[in-house]
Structures are given as C-alpha cells and as structure tokens.
Design goal:
alpha/beta, seven-stranded mixed β-sheet, about 30% strand
Length: about 180
C-alpha cells in the first residue's frame, strides 16, 4: 500500500490474482485506481469475480499471462506467491513480458520466499524440499537470482526486504527507473 500511495500508482495488475483478496484490499484504500486481476484457473477467476462483484474498479480476467496483453500500461504489476509455479529458466521471459506492460515510472512487485535467505533459511529450505515433491512446483529464487534477473532486464531492485522474517518471505520491488 505504501508503494502505491508514494508513487501515485493508478493502474495496477495482479498476476495470479487468486480470489481477488489483494485487489479488494487495494480498492478499499484506492477506490479510483483501475485494478485488473489475471487468473489462469477459470474456477478461481470466477470466485474472484464473485468476491469483487460489488467493486466497480476491479476487472478479473481469465487468461494465461503469456497470452494476455493489457489495454493500458500499468503503474504496478504484482507477482505475489507465484514464482514457485514458474520454472526458473522461464522467469526471465515472464518478467520481460511484464516489464513491457509497465508505464515509464512503473514497478513490478514480487512477494516470494527466498532460498538461502539471510532471514528464515531453515523455512525456505523446507519450503523448497516440499516443492520438490510436486511436478508443478519449482524452487524459489535466491537473492542472487533476483539481482541477476533485474540486471539482465535493466530493472532496478528498488526494495528487497523481509515481510515474514522467520519464513524467509521477501517483498521485492523492481523498477524501470
């Protein structure tokens, strides 16, 4: 919320919006913002539409992020609790695509556990061990992975801070400027 207010962000896209919880909370504080949720799972997207039906500034779209294109550039693109669904070798392509949707002063924010983080290393290791048991889940990134991707995509790591210290979960802001 601080990022949105501080940077006067008006167009926000939530990638993998789930049932619309983040968008709903943002709408309460920023009722004039134009909010879009992208969700690949039709049942989950329908649940988000139901949850957000009385909120006129939220639009939920059932789409694959690799095939979707927004109508307008975004000031903020949120990628929350999603990177573990993306193969590590495909993350650069995803972030590159999202970068192309950003306004000149736009940002991509990511909330994810960080492997071998300075905070919560034990939890992130257990988290990754759990993921290895599933075919559709992948290791979470390291701090070095995030910095390398940002550098390769000519994005600046504006923020990299723990949000759940003991769990190794981090809030990351990648910025065009």
């Amino acid at each position: 919320m601080k990022t949105i207010k501080k940077n006067k962000m008006e167009r926000i896209i939530d990638i993998g919006c789930g049932e619309g919880g983040y968008l709903s909370r943002i709408s309460q504080k920023f009722p004039h913002a134009k909010l879009a949720g992208i969700e690949i799972n039709e049942d989950v997207a329908e649940s988000a539409r139901t949850n957000c039906k009385d909120i006129p500034n939220i639009n939920i779209v059932t789409a694959d992020v690799h095939e979707y294109s927004p109508d307008h550039q975004a000031d903020l693109i949120m990628v929350n609790n999603l990177l573990h669904y993306i193969q590590p070798e495909d993350r650069k392509q995803l972030l590159s695509r999202l970068k192309s949707w950003l306004s000149r002063k736009g940002s991509i924010t990511i909330i994810t556990p960080i492997l071998h983080s300075k905070k919560g290393e034990e939890f992130s290791s257990v988290f990754n061990s759990f993921f290895s048991a599933f075919e559709n889940l992948y290791p979470t990134p390291t701090e070095e992975d995030i910095h390398r991707l940002a550098k390769e995509l000519k994005l600046r790591v504006k923020t990299f801070k723990p949000v759940v210290t003991e769990g190794g979960w981090y809030f990351i802001q990648l910025s065009n400027r």
